[in-house]
Structures are given as C-alpha cells and as structure tokens.
Amino acid sequence: MLVGRETAGWNTLSGKNTISRVLGLMPDVTIGQVVEEAVDRYRKHLPVQNYGTTNLKSRSRFTQYHFRLARELNIPPQAIVYANLLAWDYDGLTPLNRPQNEVQEVILASLKLLAVQIKHLEPNFIIFASGAQRTDYIIKQVLTELGGYKTSSVIPGKLWEFKTGNAICFRIAHPRAMRGHQKYRNEVIARIKQLCTQGG
C-alpha cells in the first residue's frame, strides 16, 4: 500500500467531490453515484493504453515513484493499493493550513477511512509517502486506530520504519522532495525486496 498526503485537487477538478455530496445532503444524488464517480476517477489514475497495458508515464513525482516501486518489486502497478492520509484537500491544496477545527474534522474522518482500508486489505507493506515533517502525528493517530505500532528504526526527518499488526511500514518524504530524500526512497525499496526474499 502506498499512502499519499491528500488528493491535491486530482479528484476534485470536476467540482463534484464536495462534502455535501459525500454526506448525501444534495437532492437527487445518491451515495452510490458518488462512489461510482470516485471509482471512475481512480480508474483514470492508472490509465490503460489501447493494447491493454497500463500507461506508465506521468509528470507526477508521486506517480513516478508508484510505477518505480511496482517495477522494482516486479509486480503490476495495480497490485499496489493507493490511498491518502487525508481524504480531502482544500481548493487543491493541503487542508493542514486551514483553521484547527476544520483540520481536525478532516483528520478524524480521514483516519477512519484509512484505518478501514488497512484493516480490510491487510497489506504486507505500507509506505507513507506523505511527508517527513508535518504528518507523523496524523500517522500515529491512524496507528492507534489499528492497535498501536512498534518502531524498528528512525532517521529523523528522513525515514521511519515501524510495524503495525502484520504490516511493515515506512514513512518517507513525499517523492517530490529532494535534498537527500532520494536515498531513503531507494532504501525503502531495497528493504522491501530484502524482506520479501527473507519471507517477510
């Protein structure tokens, strides 16, 4: 599982993905419709070319890391579940800059959604590529929802390896971050390969 920080506008450009619609507060809009629209947006996130293969080109550093992870682990990109730490953005940007009461509402709803995904899908590995500075407290809240965690190693501001349940987890900077972060993204891939070779 690969976890980003927030949607950053990619699934809200239609103007349809509003809280009112998601909560079922709009007349003539069903939750089923909202879910189907979301599924359609996710399908477009990994577009398939005419001859049936996934288009593996993207300008997004996050998507490039997703594809590289799949290639290095020798699995199809669709085998890596994509999720977000925060389920909503704010006008295409992080909601972390909003007033505290708004941020808390987004965090609480997002924690529940992510925890349910992790419990249901039971990933072997989770990479939180959600940032190395501002999101650890949110990740720790998710981990509390999941029954806690045990830290294996920490390189402050760069890489945090830990375990929750049966999942081995890593927190790294967002893939667009430079200044020495590439080394740790590579290290996560190498570590997952090593663990797969050892049998987890």
Q: How is this structure best described in words?
A:
The chain has 200 residues and is α/β, with parallel strands linked by helices. It has one domain (2-8, 56-198): Uracil-DNA glycosylase-like domain (Uracil-DNA Glycosylase, subunit E, 3-Layer(aba) Sandwich), CATH 3.40.470. The chain has 6 helices and 6 strands, in the order E-H-H-H-E-H-E-H-E-E-E-H. The chain has helices at 19-22, 31-45, 61-73, 100-121, 136-145, 181-198, and strands spanning 2-4, 82-84, 125-128, 150-155, 159-164, 167-172. Strands 2-1-3-6-5-4 form a 6-stranded mixed sheet, sandwiched between helices.
Topology summary:
Layout: E1 2-4, H1 19-22, H2 31-45, H3 61-73, E2 82-84, H4 100-121, E3 125-128, H5 136-145, E4 150-155, E5 159-164, E6 167-172, H6 181-198
Helix pairs in contact: 4-5
